[in-house]
Amino acid sequence: MDRVSSGAHEMALNALSVIGIDYRYGGNDPETGFDCSGMVRHVVRNALGLDLPRTAREMAQIGKRIPLDDLKPGDLVFFNTMRRAFSHVGIYLGDKRFVHAPSTGGQVRIDDMSARYWLARFEGARRLPAEPQL
């Protein structure tokens, strides 16, 4: 298994481990809750040792742009959920599914990207480097 697929596997395992944790605006800790970008930062740090920016919009500025039909597990997927581009982020798992921290009152969960709601709001995807850039 090469480093990229190994990293994607680690990201998927880490993402699955946070399912069910409560949503909390500004949250970045499994003990107190996550918002979408806090959950992604936590998973990526644990899986790859990369320290991502704090917001979904800033995360969208890094990594390689990936078209929707070329998504692989571990890619970051971005959506316009607040009438702002790149206002929501999740981690792609494969089979059109992604993990994310949805909104107040919710919990980290898996959703289907092919659902009308998510497909209409899809903004793009990024593939992170397999190792930190020095």
Please give the structural blueprint.
Elements: H1 3-17, E1 28-29, E2 33-34, H2 36-48, H3 56-59, E3 64-66, E4 76-79, E5 88-94, E6 97-100, E7 109-112, H4 116-121, E8 122-127
Antiparallel strand pairs: 1-2, 3-8, 4-5, 4-8, 5-6, 6-7
Helix pairs in contact: 1-2
Keywords: Hydrolase, Protease, Thiol protease
Protein name: C40 family peptidase
Pfam family, one: NLPC_P60
Please give a structural write-up.
- By secondary structure, this protein is of the alpha+beta class.
- It has a single domain (3-127), classed as endopeptidase domain like (from Nostoc punctiforme) (endopeptidase fold (from Nostoc punctiforme), Alpha-Beta Complex).
- It contains four helices and eight strands, in the order H-E-E-H-H-E-E-E-E-E-H-E.
- Strands 3-8-4-5-6-7 form a six-stranded antiparallel beta sheet. A two-stranded antiparallel ribbon has the order 1-2.
- One of its GO terms (molecular function) is cysteine-type peptidase activity.
- This is C40 family peptidase.
- InterPro entries: NLP_P60_dom, Papain-like_cys_pep_sf, Peptidase_C40.
State the total count of DSSP E strands. 8
CATH homologous superfamily descriptor: endopeptidase domain like (from Nostoc punctiforme)
Largest sheet: 6 strands, antiparallel
Provide the residue-averaged pLDDT. Answer: 92
CATH topology: endopeptidase fold (from Nostoc punctiforme)
In terms of structural class, how would the helical and strand content be classed?
A: alpha+beta
Q: Return the string of H and E elements.
A: HEEHHEEEEEHE
User: What's the N-to-C terminus distance?
Assistant: 24 Å
CATH domain class: Alpha Beta
Strand content: 15-25%
Stretches where pLDDT falls below 50 for ≥5 residues? none
Structure annotation, total helices? 4
What is the approximate shape?
A: globular
Strand order of the largest sheet: 3-8-4-5-6-7
> Percent range for helical residues?
25-40%
Keywords: Hydrolase, Protease, Thiol protease
Protein name: C40 family peptidase
Family: Belongs to the peptidase C40 family.
GO molecular function, one term: cysteine-type peptidase activity
